[in-house]
Design goal:
The complex is a heterodimer. Chain A is an all-alpha fold. Chain A has one domain (2-219). Chain A has helices spanning 2-17, 19-39, 44-68, 72-77, 79-86, 90-104, 106-119, 127-152, 159-185, 191-219. Chain A is elongated. Chain B folds into 2 domains: 1-74 and 147-201, 3-Layer(aba) Sandwich (Rossmann fold), CATH 3.40.50; 82-146, no CATH class. Chain B has 5 helices and 8 strands. In chain B, the strands form 2 sheets. In chain B, strands 5-6-7-3-8 form a 5-stranded parallel beta sheet, with helices on both faces. The mean pLDDT of chain B is 90. The chains are: A mainly alpha, B alpha/beta. The A-B interface holds A 2-3, 5-7, 9-10, 13-14, 17-18, 73-74, 76-79, 81-88, 93, 217, 220-222 and B 19, 53, 56-60, 73-74, 76, 78-87, 91-92, 94-96, 98-101, 104, 125.
Chain lengths: 222, 201
């Protein structure tokens, strides 16, 4: 367990020292929300129907931007080698690393999402579901994105390839996430979508760290 | 660190490795017991780094076997320093101690950073240090580790004379304590009773 604590502490410290990196996805999210808000025109009704999906797509893209660099620096400076050699069990170390990363991206996006929803005219009754669906969905996105990032970390600039690998896996999360907030906004119960999101998160949480660990091992074979 | 069993710290049999289908070396037979130092020599591209990474478990062999005496995992000091540039040497060593499951006592960390001659430089982010100082930050791992087998890849690179003497003294101390060292290098380490493995290239 001390591995997990030490890894989270370290990654928080690194994120704080390299603030520009950590802020990048969140800034992207905030800026694009503002731009959409300005460009969509004054039709509240039409916008309110599109907005939950839009916030979700932007959160997805921001998460993907963040996961792209998740392992790259550690790969380059050799700390990844040390993690693979000594970070036993690797599952715990990987999970800790992803948790720290989610806290500085996904959690912040979730916290900002009601504001983004208001800006894009999401009906008030849809806002809790929007934030709730992102709270369940962004960890799943981070876990899935991490698999793609780990698979491509040894390839230098693997950003595009990582996106191609991760996007099909992102789709179910996106569908149920956006579906939950849309259902709530139109007055229906989002329970089914939330249960699906929970199931997807549980699956990602149990399977992704193993996949990430294996992919990181492969990245060392050069 | 005394050897409880008679099993050697490292034993390879008929080890062969290749990159992209091209075999780098084959039939490597190595046995390292307590107190041994073996230099791995050979021209550039002969597979010194690959051999070390293979023994560390970072690279899969083509044929043969590697056995590192359990339960310990070897210490690996590669070309990449394994030092996060955003963290100080002190913070890096704390993280490493946690990975190895060792005590993260503040005194232990401070001693390690002082031993490798960083002193106050060990308290600022490593990105602001020179290449040699960053290398010293990596060497701090040698001070704190309890791994009996060390795999050192060009440990003298980027180091000044005092730094090179430091590496020698750390290796010396480790051998006295019953450890073994496998060191890929181009120039002789300069310590007595060093074995030598020549990779043909």
């Amino acid at each position: 367990m001390s591995i997990a604590v030490a890894q989270v502490r370290r990654d928080f410290l690194v994120a704080f020292r390299a603030r520009a990196d950590a802020v990048h996805p969140v800034a992207f999210f905030a800026l694009t929300v503002v731009l959409f808000g300005l460009s969509m025109g004054p039709d509240r009704q039409a916008m309110g129907e599109l907005a939950p999906g839009m916030v979700w797509v932007l959160a997805l893209l921001a998460t993907m931007m963040g996961t792209d660099t998740l392992f790259r620096r550690d790969f380059e400076d050799g700390t990844l080698e040390q993690l693979l050699l000594h970070g036993r069990p690797l599952f715990v170390a990987v999970l800790a690393k992803l948790f720290a990363h989610w806290c500085v991206t996904g959690l912040v996006l979730t916290a900002l999402s009601p504001l983004a929803g208001l800006m894009l005219q999401v009906p008030a009754e849809g806002l809790p579901a929007l934030a709730g669906s992102l709270a369940l969905g962004t960890p799943a996105l981070t876990l899935i994105g991490a698999i793609a990032a780990a698979l491509t970390v040894g390839l230098g600039r693997g950003g595009m390839l990582a996106a191609v690998i991760a996007l099909p896996l992102f789709v179910p999360v996106l569908i149920f996430g956006a579906g939950a907030s849309l259902a709530a906004a139109s007055g229906a119960s989002p329970a089914a979508e939330f249960l699906w999101l929970g199931a997807l998160l549980a699956a990602a949480l149990t399977l992704a760290p193993f996949a990430v660990g294996l992919a990181l091992r492969v990245s060392q074979e050069y | 660190m005394a050897d409880p069993s008679n099993e050697p710290l490292l034993c390879t049999r008929g080890l062969a490795c290749g990159v992209n289908g091209r075999t780098l070396f084959e039939g490597v037979e190595l046995t390292l017991s307590a107190g041994d130092l073996v230099e791995v020599r050979g021209p550039n591209g002969s597979g010194k780094t690959t051999l070390l990474r293979c023994i560390a478990g970072l690279f899969t062999e083509e044929a043969g076997s590697v056995r590192v005496r359990p339960p310990e995992r070897p210490l690996y000091l590669g070309h990449k320093p394994g030092v996060n540039p955003m963290l100080s040497a002190l913070e890096n060593i704390r993280w490493y101690l946690a990975l190895e499951g060792l005590s993260r006592d503040a005194d232990v960390c401070r001693d390690a950073v002082d031993t490798v001659g960083l002193g106050r430089a060990g308290r600022v982010p490593c990105a602001t240090l020179s290449a040699g100082q960053r290398r010293r930050a990596a060497l701090a791992r040698l001070v704190v580790t309890e791994a009996p087998l060390w795999l050192l890849d060009e440990p003298f690179s980027a180091l000044d004379d005092a730094g090179q003497d430091l590496v020698r003294s750390l290796i010396d101390r480790h051998r006295d304590a019953g450890g073994a060292v496998l060191c890929a290098t181009h120039e002789p380490v300069g310590l007595p009773d060093a074995g030598r493995l020549e990779l043909p290239g």
